[in-house]
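step=encode ok
step=design start
structure_in=
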């Protein structure tokens, strides 16, 4: 079961976090919600009767966690004086996310404009699908489709290029190039 949860985490972490961030603007709250989701998944994975419905089940669980977050509202906020003796824990773990993101940016430039432009507008300019659709004179669904396809293409190129070692949070802590792949990108 532990291996199954790790596999689910690796395969769905980024996708679910992205989904949460579309509903919750606070990045730290989004990360907290994602953690809650995987705790729920860990505790109730046996209840999933049909493994082919895993993705739908994950999204339903995530959506419920977002609803719970908004229901809690401000009730869960702490006053500053309640934290007087609490010390932050520094995370010494270094990851390679920034290094890989630079590599991804160069890969992104190689995508056809039809996919590259909507993804850049969405990720770097923080435009909404409706704004992208209007700017590029395409439909709303086409904007979503192009961004999704761009991500899939980038993931395929990245996975073909390198093998990754991730920490429990999905951060890249090490990677190596695949020897049989000739990489023209500036990854190490």
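sequence_out=
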């Amino acid at each position: 079961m532990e291996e199954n949860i790790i596999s689910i985490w690796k395969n769905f972490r980024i996708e679910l976090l992205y989904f949460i961030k579309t509903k919750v603007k606070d990045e730290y709250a989004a990360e907290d919600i994602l953690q809650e989701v995987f705790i729920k998944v860990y505790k109730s994975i046996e209840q999933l009767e049909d493994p082919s419905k895993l993705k739908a089940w994950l999204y339903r669980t995530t959506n419920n966690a977002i609803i719970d977050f908004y229901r809690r509202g401000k009730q869960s906020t702490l006053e500053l004086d309640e934290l007087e003796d609490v010390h932050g824990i520094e995370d010494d773990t270094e990851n390679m996310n920034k290094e890989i993101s630079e590599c991804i940016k160069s890969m992104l430039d190689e995508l056809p404009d039809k996919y590259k432009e909507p993804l850049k507008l969405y990720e770097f300019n923080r435009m909404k699908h409706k704004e992208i659709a209007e700017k590029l004179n395409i439909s709303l669904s086409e904007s979503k489709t192009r961004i999704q396809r761009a991500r899939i293409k980038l993931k395929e190129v990245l996975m073909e290029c390198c093998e990754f070692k991730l920490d429990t949070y999905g951060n890249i802590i090490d990677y190596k190039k695949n020897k049989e792949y000739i990489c023209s990108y500036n990854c190490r």
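step=design ok
step=annotate ok -> Residues 2-72 form a domain with the Rna Polymerase Sigma Factor; Chain: A fold (CATH 1.10.1740.10).
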